[in-house]
Amino acid sequence: MPRTIKRMTLWLAAAALFASIVAGCSQQNVKEPEDKGGTSAVTKEAPVELSIMCFDCERIAKSDDDPIYKVLQEKLNIKLKVLSSPYNNYNDKLNVMIASGELADIFFGDGISKMEQYQTWIKEGFLLPLSDVSAKYPNLDKMLKRFDLYKAATGGKHYGLPVSAYFEVDNPVYNDHVMYVRQDWLDKLGLQVPKTIDEFYEVAKAFTEKDPDGNNKADTYGYSSADGGLWWHYPIFNAFGTSSDRYRKASDQWVPEIIQDEMKEAVAFLKQMYDEKIMDPEFMINNGDQLLEKFISGKVGIIFKNGGSFYNTIYEKFKKAYPGKDPKTLFTYGGIMTGKDGQKRLDGFGNYWLFTFINNQSSPEKQAKALELLDYLASDEGIMLMRSGIEGVHYKKEGDKLISLLEKGEDGNQKSLTDVDGTARLKTLITWDSGFIPDTTPNKEQVLQVGREGIEHSNPDPLYGMFIDPSVLAPELGKTTGDLAQEAIVKMIAKSKNLDSDWTSFVDAWLSKGGKQIWDETNKKAIEENR
Fold first, then answer.
1. With helix as H, strand as E and coil as C, how does 46-91 read?
2. Confidence of residue 439 (pLDDT cuts 50, 70, 90)
3. What DSSP line would sit under 417-440, residue for residue?
4. From CA 182, how far away is CA 302, in angstroms rounded?
C-alpha cells in the first residue's frame, strides 16, 4: 500500500501563513458597501445564519462593523456564527459535535489524508456530496475539478473541498523543493547549475575535487542529504524514473517502484558518489538544520530544500555569515533535472491541507448559503477581498499597484490584513494561498521563481488516496517494509561490497516481510477502482 505522502513542510508553512496574510495585487477592486440611508421599498429577507467550525479563528466575524464582514453580509445576506478551537484539540471538539448531533454547517476535516474516517463520515451521511450540486457554482466547481484524481477513492464523487496550498496552481499536486547550489563555487570553477542528472554528478564531483573554496584543503563535498538519509534523495530517484513509495502501471498490472531495476540504478549512482567521496558521509545522520549549516558554511555545495519563501531564510543566513557580500553571489537554485530517460520528473505532494466540508444534515437553505460563500471566496472578487481588503480602507490604488494603508505594528513591520480584520481568515476555507507573495516581500522575484517549475509541473501519484481496509491489509506492514527499505538502501550506499547480491537480498526480504501482500492488495484495489 502506498505510503501517505509526507507534508510536514506544508503544515509548518500553513501555520506560519495564518499570521502573515497581507495585502497584494489583483485587477479587481472591492469597495466598502455604501450606506445610502432611507427606507427600501422592498423588504429585505432576514439573513441566513451559518455556523463555521474552525481552529484559531475566533476573530472571524467578531463584529458586525468589521469592514470585510460587512461586505459579505451585504453580498450574501448571511450572518456567521464562528465556533473556534485551538488546533491541538480541534479534532476532539469536532468529534464531540458529531456525537452530539450539533455539527456546524461548515467545518474542516482531514479528508483523504485519513481515509478510514473520511469513508465513515460519508457512510454516516454527514457530508454533502459537493459533486451533485457544484455545477451551479462555477468557481467552486473549478476548484473541485482540480482534484478529480482524488474522486476514485470516494466512489467518483467529491464530498469535500481540498483546501488548496496554491490557489492559482490548477494541479492536484505541487512540489516547491529545489536544488540549491553554491554560486561562488560555480563561478570559481566556470560551471553552470546542473540541468541533467549527468551534469549533477559532474558538478558535484568538481565541488569535491577542485578546491571550490580556494583554501587548498580537501574539505568540501559536492552533495549531501538529511533526515534519515533516504527520503531527501527522492529528486535523484525521480531522475532515474523511480521512487521509494509509488507504484507504476506496467501492462495491466501495478508494480512497486522500490524493487524495480531503475531503483537499483539510482542506488548504484548514489553509491558511486559515496565511494568517490563526492557525497557527504554524514548524509544519513544530518538533520535539516545541520544540512543547511553545511551548505552555508561551505562544507557542501549542493542540497535539496524548500523553495518559495524559504529562499529568504537561506538568503538571510548567508547575509549574516558573510557580512558585506551579496548573498545572491553566494548561492543560486535550479529546476527539475532531466533524467536518464530524457524526461523530467519531480514527484508532487497533494496541493492541499485539510478539506472543507458542508454538513449534509443542515437545512437546504443553509447548504445553499454555504455553497454561495465558498463559491464567492473562490471567485476573483472574493480572493481579492480576502487578500487585499477594501479600497480606501485597507489599500489605495496608484496606477496598477495597490498600496497598503495598513498601519505598522510595534515591531515596525506592516500589519497583515488578518491583524486588522480577522474575517480575512475566511480565505482558509478554500486556500492557504502559499503562492501569494505580497509586493513588500524581500527578493520577491526570486521567491516567486524558486521552485516554480515543480509547483506547476510536479508528478501526481496515480494511486493517491487509495484506502485498503485494515482487516484486509494490516497497516503496520507498510511501516515494516518502509523501515526495511530505509535501512537496506542506506547500507547499500555506504557499505555494500557486492551491490548485485545485496540488492537481490533486499528484494527478497521486502517481498517476504509483507511487500508481496501489500503489492497484491494494492494491485487488486487499483484494478477495482479502475485506476
1. CCEEEEEEEECCCCCCCCCCCHHHHHHHHHHCEEEEEEEECHHHHH
2. confident
3. HHHH-GGGGGGGGTB--TT---TT
4. 7
Could you tell me the CA-to-CA distances from 253 to 134, 249, 519 in Å, in that order?
34, 6, 10
Per the prediction, the chain carries an average pLDDT of 91
* H runs (alpha helix) in 322-379: 364-377
What average pLDDT does range 341-364 have in this prediction? 96
Residues 6+ away with beta carbon under 8 Å from 297: 321
Q: Which residue has the cell 448559503?
A: 369
* Contact assessment for residue 1 and residue 479, using Cβ atoms and an 8 Å cutoff: no
Residue with cell 506492514: 477
Mean pLDDT for 393-404 is: 91
How far is 73 from 54, CA to CA, in rounded Å? 19
Element (DSSP H or E) covering residue 352: strand 352-358
Residue 526 has pLDDT above 80, yes or no: yes
What pLDDT was estimated at residue 43?
A: 63
Contact 129, 318 (CB under 8 A): no
Query: Which string of b and e fits 278-311 if b means at least 16 CB within 10 Å?
Result: bbbebbbebeeeebbebbbebbbbbbbbbbbbbb
- Please, is 356 exposed, middle or buried when counting C-beta atoms within 10 Å of its C-beta (0-12, 13-18, 19+)? buried
Cα separation, 482 vs 518, whole angstroms: 11
pLDDT interval class at 15 (50, 70, 90)? very low
Residue 162: strand, helix, or coil = strand
CA 119, CA 18: separation in Å to the nearest integer? 29
Residue 458 has pLDDT above 90, yes or no: yes
In the numeric block, the cell 557525497 is attached to: 279
Beta-bridged to residue 177, according to DSSP, are 306
- The answer to whether 338 touches 197, Cβ cutoff 8 Å, is yes
SS3 percent helix, strand, coil of the chain, rounded to 5, is 45, 15, 40
Q: Kindly report the number of other CB atoms within 10 A of residue 37's CB atom.
A: 5
Which of 139, 140, 117, 113 shows the shortest CA–CA distance to 127?
A: 117
The one-letter amino acid code at 238 reads N
C-alpha cell of residue 462: 496515480
- d(Cα 115, Cα 529) in Å, to the nearest integer? 15
Tell me, what amino acid is at 486?
Q
